[in-house]
């Protein structure tokens, strides 16, 4: 016998990926329920080789549901996660609402799986920001080996991180430029087609954006509060797949060969690093894959004990849906009793 699992936000990009990954990984579920707002009630979504009819959130009874994977806005999570948790259903939330709550574990399974045990305080577990998730997967094994003291990261984030309407805007804007019928931006502050925008989420008082702030504070909570982190987050005209250029400083010297060997053995990491044309991974190759890909490993000669690396991952998978399902797998294996 297995679990009863609800996926809330099942009609969105991340919600659909959650359903795909639950089926792909053969999660031990007796029943999977697709949930969304009332306007999506009756819509059909794919779950493996079958389809599910979406049920309305506001009329669904969570009693008897073991796990709810939430792919909704922070506002909806703020309202519904405590209600769902109060029914005895463990919420794994993909929004930013609960990440920095001291009573809610913020988890990347390859990095801090043991933190899941803290879910009992509120019956909620938080998924990190997509750009943070892939970064800490790459950083963790290197931190264990040589202790990272500082991280400088520049991101190249796909439009799918901003939702389906953002993906549509990139498509229509690109097409309109070719037919000389330019479209004004609606989802972004500037034209995204054939452009890059150094602005994700709202601006904060110190000049950073909230996306950049998230990468700083989430990395400290997940990996090590002593690591100094500074980020510049950029939206690029790519449909799926986030890329990051990392510059890392360590307590001790670490060579690129040593780092390469460490990362090849690390969970969730796949090193593709040949110093030749095409000997690295780009977002196009990572789409639909589980791994965090690492390329362009090299020593930074301008600082003591420095390394540069290039990190690429499918943001809808490792950055969101896969990470949530991995948390659910550990939650089920270690902490929950199966029904029946």
Question: Could you describe the 3D structure shown?
Answer:
This protein is of the alpha/beta class. It has 2 domains: 3-127 and 320-334, NAD(P)-binding Rossmann-like Domain (Rossmann fold); 131-314, 2-Layer Sandwich (Dihydrodipicolinate Reductase, domain 2). Helix content is 31%, strand content 24%. It has 9 helices and 14 strands. The protein has helices at 13-24, 74-86, 109-112, 130-146, 164-178, 210-222, 256-264, 283-286, 317-334, and strands at residues 3-8, 29-36, 44-47, 50-53, 55-56, 67-70, 90-93, 124-126, 148-157, 228-235, 242-250, 269-271, 292-300, 306-313. A 6-stranded parallel β-sheet has the order 5-2-1-6-7-8, sandwiched between helices. The chain has a 6-stranded mixed β-sheet with strand order 10-9-11-14-13-12. Strands 3-4 form a two-stranded antiparallel ribbon. Strand 12, helix 8 (283-286) and strand 13 (292-300) form a beta-alpha-beta unit. The mean pLDDT is 96.
Summarize the structure.
By secondary structure, the protein is of the alpha/beta class. It is built from 9 helices and 14 strands. It has 2 domains: 140 residues, NAD(P)-binding Rossmann-like Domain (Rossmann fold, 3-Layer(aba) Sandwich), CATH 3.40.50.720; 184 residues, Dihydrodipicolinate Reductase, domain 2 (2-Layer Sandwich).
């Amino acid at each position: 016998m297995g679990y009863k699992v609800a996926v809330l936000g099942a009609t969105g990009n991340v919600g659909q990926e959650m359903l795909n990954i639950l089926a792909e990984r053969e999660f031990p579920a007796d029943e999977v329920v697709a949930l969304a707002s009332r306007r999506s009630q009756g819509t059909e979504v794919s779950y493996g080789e079958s389809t599910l009819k979406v049920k309305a959130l506001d009329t669904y009874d969570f009693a008897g549901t073991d796990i709810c994977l939430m792919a909704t806005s922070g506002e909806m999570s703020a309202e519904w996660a405590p209600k769902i948790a109060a029914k005895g259903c463990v919420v794994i939330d993909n929004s930013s609402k609960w990440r920095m709550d001291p009573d809610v574990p913020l988890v990347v399974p390859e990095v801090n799986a043991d933190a899941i045990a803290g879910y009992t305080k509120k019956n909620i577990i938080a998924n990190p920001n997509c750009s943070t998730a892939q970064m800490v997967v790459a950083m963790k094994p290197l931190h264990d080996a040589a202790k990272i003291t500082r991280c400088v990261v520049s991101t190249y984030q796909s439009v799918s991180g901003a939702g389906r309407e953002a993906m549509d805007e990139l498509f229509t804007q690109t097409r309109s430029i070719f037919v000389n019928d330019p479209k004004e931006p609606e989802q972004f502050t500037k034209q995204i087609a054939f452009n890059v925008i150094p602005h994700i989420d709202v601006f904060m008082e110190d000049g950073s954006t909230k996306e950049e702030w998230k990468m700083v504070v989430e990395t400290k909570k997940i990996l090590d509060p002593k690591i100094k982190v500074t980020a510049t987050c950029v939206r690029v005209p790519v449909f799926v797949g986030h890329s990051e250029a990392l510059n890392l400083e360590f307590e001790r010297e670490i060579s690129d060969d040593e780092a390469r060997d460490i990362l090849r053995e690390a969970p969730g990491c796949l090193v593709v690093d040949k110093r030749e044309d095409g000997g690295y991974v780009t977002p196009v190759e990572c789409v639909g894959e589980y791994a965090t890909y690492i390329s362009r490993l090299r020593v930074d000669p301008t600082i003591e004990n420095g390394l540069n690396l290039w990190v690429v991952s499918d943001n809808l998978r490792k950055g969101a849906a896969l990470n949530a399902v991995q948390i659910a797998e550990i939650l089920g294996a270690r902490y929950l009793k199966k029904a029946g």
